[in-house]
Every structure is written in structure tokens, then in C-alpha cells.
């Protein structure tokens, strides 16, 4: 029903750019009072043509700011729950057990703090020609982001995507994967504002990863021509489909495994530790996670063995991880030799109140048990 009504209202005000509708709520914005009167006449005439009656008691006219769908809308933008925030800080003075000398200076500082708080969540109106930036971040238990627009030297927030808690499985992701998850969820959340715009600038704590530069690729190609391990892998039944492949950033061929959906270059001994360090140092995952991370991108002989050895020799992993856990055996009680030599006492509750009492004290003699 609401969807049909929304479509019906949209078809009525489709040609009125200053009017916005959400089901049966209309918001009309104008530059000044004169244009506001003309816009109201146009909207009322459109509604009258389609037999829609307006209740004047539920309408507000000529306001510089008003609350609309949980937002306090004004010429400066829209602030989510801003009206509640105004009520929270209006005429409030800090009071606690510590004496405060209240004078003009402290009162001015307090009023300034209230103003900063109320404007902290102010959202700006989108500009069609503004450049956008999506700021994302991720912690151990949640992700969040803010969509901003850049107008000259000013950065204005357009929308917030806050406190999306991570599931139990997502909390186990590495720092790098949690940051990527934050970007993915943020783009998905703001998809309706990002599509059809200029290239979006996304910022996170993830920096660009350059595993090898152009000089390294040239040296890697030269080393492969005389690498004995590569020759042995190509002549053995290992399940790898190694063959020469051209890359866009180099005019030389590289031997890669094409047996999977992802092309995995073969890495010679000279560059293996370099690649391991750059991937492992992102979040210092464990042995199995590091093996999976590297084997999905590269291939070489004894890759899992090298990754396990280098993970165990990583200094930062040794400082922050526990590789050996002490498990204590299950304790046993000696058998009692006489009554009341060993008594177990416990409290049970809370239970349904009986005679204003809701707990039970239990005592068990192990000799007679």
C-alpha cells in the first residue's frame, strides 16, 4: 500500500523540483518567501487536480528549519536526530561534586561546546558536480564509514554508515580483510549515491601494495630462464600448468601457473622472502593463513614449508603470539575418611520468591553422598 501511494505521489510532483515526498509527507524548499508562495500554489494545484485533500493542522509553512523524517533540515543541511540533540543540551549546565567557577569565560566555552556537539552530525545537501570521497575504517568488532563531498576547500558529510557490528566469523578476519570488508559494505550501503558519478576516492588504512617494481619484474624474468627448480617443476607431474605469460607492465614473459582461475606467477628464490614479508607483514597472520594468502597469488617449490619456517622466525609474531598453551589436568578430590570431613557448599538462585526469599544454601557431605 505504501509503495503504491509513494508512486502515486511521485507521479504528481514529478515536474516540481523543489518538492520532495516520502509516502504522504511533503517537503517544499524555496529560496525566499515570494518563491515559497509560488511553490506552495503550484503544489496545492497539482494535489487538487488529483483529488488529494491537505489537512492544514498537520502542515507547517514558512519555517527556516524543521524536523523531517528524523532529520532537522535547514539551509545549512540536514542533521540526523539533531532535534533530540538540541533538547539534550538546551539550558543544561554541568553539575557534579567538583566545584566549578562559573563566569563569562566558562559560560562562553560551554555554549561553544554545545554548538560543536549539535553541529557534529550536520549533513549537507548533495551537489551534483562535487567530488566525492568515501572514508572507511574497521576495528576488531565493527566497521564504519562516512560519505563526503568536496566543494572547493571544504569537506562536507553527506551520510554516515556507523557501527555495523562484525559477526563471529568476520571478527576472525585479518586486519587487511576487515578493512576490505569495510570498503565493500560502505560502497554497498551508498550505492544509490555513488552510481553514475565521477571516480570515487576511497580512503582507508589500506595503502597500495606493490609486491614488485618494474626492475624486479625484469630481474625475475631473467632468473627464470636459468632456474633449475622451474625446469624440474615443468618436467614433473605436480598438477601445475606452467607456461609463459605476458604482463601489461613488462614486455618480457613470465612463467605462471594457469591451472586455476587466478594466474599465479612462479617466483625464484631471490624474491620469495620479499614477497613473504610484504604479504605477511600486513597483519601477521598464522602459518596456515599466510600459506593460503601467498599460495593464492604465487607459486614456487616447497611454498608451504618456506612459509611455515618464516612465520615461526617472525620476530613480531614471537612477541605477540602464544605458540604453546599449558593445559592443566583435571583435578581430583581425595576420598573422605569420615563424615563431615569434606563438605561442598553452594548457593542456588535466584528462584521464585517464597516468604520474600529467593536463594537456597546447599551443603553436601561427600562421605554420605
TrEMBL record:
It is an enzyme of class 2 (transferase). Keywords: Multifunctional enzyme. Residues 1-73 form the Reverse transcriptase domain. GO terms for molecular function: RNA-directed DNA polymerase activity. Transmembrane segments: none annotated. InterPro entries: DNA/RNA_pol_sf, Integrase_H2C2, Retrovirus_Pol_polyprotein, Rev_trsase/Diguanyl_cyclase, RT_dom, RT_RNaseH_2. It comes from the Eukaryota. PANTHER family: PROTEIN CBG26694, PROTEIN NYNRIN-LIKE. This is RNA-directed DNA polymerase. The lineage of its organism: Eukaryota, Metazoa, Ecdysozoa, Arthropoda, Chelicerata.
Amino acid at each position: 500500500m505504501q509503495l503504491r501511494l509513494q508512486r502515486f505521489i511521485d507521479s504528481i510532483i514529478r515536474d516540481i523540483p523543489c518538492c520532495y515526498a516520502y509516502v504522504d509527507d511533503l517537503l517544499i524548499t524555496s529560496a525566499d518567501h515570494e518563491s515559497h508562495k509560488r511553490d506552495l500554489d503550484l503544489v496545492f494545484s497539482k494535489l487538487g487536480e488529483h483529488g488529494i485533500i491537505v489537512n492544514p493542522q498537520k502542515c507547517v509553512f514558512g519555517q527556516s528549519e524543521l524536523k523531517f523524517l528524523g532529520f532537522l533540515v535547514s539551509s545549512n543541511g540536514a542533521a540526523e536526530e539533531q532535534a533530540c540533540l538540541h533538547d539534550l543540551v538546551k539550558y543544561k549546565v554541568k553539575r557534579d561534586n567538583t566545584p566549578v567557577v562559573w563566569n563569562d569565560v566558562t559560560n562562553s566555552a560551554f555554549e561553544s561546546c554545545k554548538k560543536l556537539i549539535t553541529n557534529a552530525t550536520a549533513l549537507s545537501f548533495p551537489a551534483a558536480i562535487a567530488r566525492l570521497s568515501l572514508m572507511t575504517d574497521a576495528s576488531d568488532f565493527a566497521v564504519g564509514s562516512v560519505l563526503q563531498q568536496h566543494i572547493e576547500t571544504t569537506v562536507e558529510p553527506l551520510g554516515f554508515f556507523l557501527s555495523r557490528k562484525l559477526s563471529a566469523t568476520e571478527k576472525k578476519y585479518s586486519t587487511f580483510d576487515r578493512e576490505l570488508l569495510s570498503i565493500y559494505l560502505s560502497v554497498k550501503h551508498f550505492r544509490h549515491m555513488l552510481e553514475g558519478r565521477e571516480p570515487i576516492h576511497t580512503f582507508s588504512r589500506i595503502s597500495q601494495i606493490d609486491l614488485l617494481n618494474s626492475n624486479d619484474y625484469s630481474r625475475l624474468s631473467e632468473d627464470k630462464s636459468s632456474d633449475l627448480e622451474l625446469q624440474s617443476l615443468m618436467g614433473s607431474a605436480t598438477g601445475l600448468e606452467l607456461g609463459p605469460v605476458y604482463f601489461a607492465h613488462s614486455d618480457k614473459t613470465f612463467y605462471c601457473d594457469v591451472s586455476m582461475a587466478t594466474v599465479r606467477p612462479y617466483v625464484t628464490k631471490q624474491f620469495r622472502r620479499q614477497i613473504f614479508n610484504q604479504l605477511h607483514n600486513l597483519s601477521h597472520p598464522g602459518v596456515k593463513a599466510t600459506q593460503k594468502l601467498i599460495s593464492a597469488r604465487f607459486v614456487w617449490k616447497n611454498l608451504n614449508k618456506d612459509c611455515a619456517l618464516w612465520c615461526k622466525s617472525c620476530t613480531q609474531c614471537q612477541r605477540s603470539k602464544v605458540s604453546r598453551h599449558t593445559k592443566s589436568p583435571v583435578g581430583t578430590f581425595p576420598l573422605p575418611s569420615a563424615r563431615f570431613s569434606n563438605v561442598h557448599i553452594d548457593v542456588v538462585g535466584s528462584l521464585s520468591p517464597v516468604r520474600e526469599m529467593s536463594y537456597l544454601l546447599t551443603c553436601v557431605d561427600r562421605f554420605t553422598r
